[in-house]
Amino acid sequence: MTTLTETLLCPERADDVASVADLPAVLPVVGRDTLVPLVDGREVRYANLDVAASAPALQAVADRVNQVLPLYASVHRGAGYLSQVSTALYEAARRAIGAFVGAREDDVTIVTRNTTDSLNLLAGCVPADPVTGEPGRVLVLDVEHHANFLPWQRDAAATVLTGRGTVAETLAEIRAELRSAAVEGRPYALLALTGASNVTGEALPVAEVVAAAHDAGARVLLDGAQLVPHRRLSLAETGVDYVAFSGHKTYAPFGAGALVGRRDWLDVGTPYLAGGGAVRRVRVGGTEWHDGPARHEAGSPNVVGAVALAAACEALAALDPAEVREHEDALRRRLVAGLEALDRVEVVRVWSDAADPVGVVTFTVAGYDPGLVAAYLSAEHGIGVRDGRFCAHPLLGRLGFDAGAVRASVGVGTTGEEVERLVAAVAALVAEGPQARYDVVDGLWVVVDDPRPVPEGSGLEGLLATAALGADEAFGCLPD
Ligand SMILES: Cc1ncc(COP(=O)(O)O)c(C=O)c1O
């Protein structure tokens, strides 16, 4: 029974969110027509509702990569014509990536591998406390993805604040902690916060967070992994000091990510990688390091990845941000309403008053292990979702979802039909249970005697062969 308060706080619970079956994608993505096999022998168009993990390439990104590949040569190292073209492409990509997140004139844009890489890099650059010489203090919440948690725990002096049930209470906690630390002479250097939760899509309001941190003399790092692909962020307009994000979540899965932000810490921080390109002069007795992005980009740069990410940034920048928000929010609201209308389905929330979440919806189905739900959605409906604890163990533990949950996520390439399929598939699970037989092999839910063939031309031996190998050998240590 839905209470009036719940309905007011979460309007989508009112069950009146109309079908979005006719909603088309905002931008074409590669693979949108890929057929996948089901256990009953049919083939269906793959519904990729796992874009928060990795988003498919925008068609514009793939086109740009194909365009520049014939021009590809060494970067920053060659006198050849194409080397110079590739170097220019790489540096132009850097400018486009920085511009997309509203970099200030003096900000540095470093091309990294992904968000994790960017956060590890910055963790090595937080200055020591000028009075005590101790490692710089960093404040984080327990809602973070491990990528925005572990680097601070390992390389800086991290304090972890437990989030509260509402945005307002959590903001008050943050303000109080920042203020009292400053008054007591142990100020924080940095507040490292998610721009959007990878579990629920929710976030704290950026303006309030920045004001609270700057008032107490701390800088703000936004983990933009789930924010940047879905909402327009401007460092210059918001005052956010650093943002980290991933190309593969920004429709550019070519191995690049970015860290953008204030120059001073990055210019003197420990070079992230020691090696060629990061140095001005090397002598046996000592080394003179570069400043700027080169300081942290030793080794041959990923020019294709950078160009791909820049192409994605340009394609997203060309869209009306309101159109993207409206599209993704219509899909999210429909998912929440459709799932919450089902018996035994619970949708996870961090804050009861969060405004404007991005399109990430995490849920559980009572009586079914999340891994089984995800295997069922794939095997019987051709739908890709993520299950587990989403590399956010502290949050899932605090919210009482230690056994994990299922996450569906949407983006500019998602259609309403895909969302309707998920809601219908979960409804069928609740009503009738799975039709195939499933078992746990090496910790993974799989279909017993899975008959699905591997895609032609993929060069794989088969899903069955993968399962037979055992999850550990096939995938190494799976993130949970
Ligand atoms: C909020 C958040 N931060 C950081 C990461 C890590 O991103 P990557 O794996 O691209 O380094 C993720 C990935 O899911 C994420 O969702």
Automatic annotation (TrEMBL):
Keywords (A to Z) from UniProt: Pyridoxal phosphate, Transferase
Positions of the Aminotransferase class V domain: 48-422
GO MF entry, a single one: cysteine desulfurase activity
Gene3D superfamilies named in the record: Aspartate Aminotransferase, domain 1 (3.90.1150.10), Type I PLP-dependent aspartate aminotransferase-like (Major domain) (3.40.640.10)
Entry cofactors: pyridoxal 5'-phosphate
Claim: Transcription regulation is one of the keywords in the record: no
Enzyme class: transferase
Keyword Oxidoreductase carried by entry: no
Catalytic activity: (sulfur carrier)-H + L-cysteine = (sulfur carrier)-SH + L-alanine
EC number(s) stated in the UniProt entry for this protein: 2.8.1.7
Similarity annotation: Belongs to the class-V pyridoxal-phosphate-dependent aminotransferase family. Csd subfamily.
Name of this chain's protein: Cysteine desulfurase
Organism phylogeny: Bacteria, Bacillati, Actinomycetota, Actinomycetes, Micrococcales
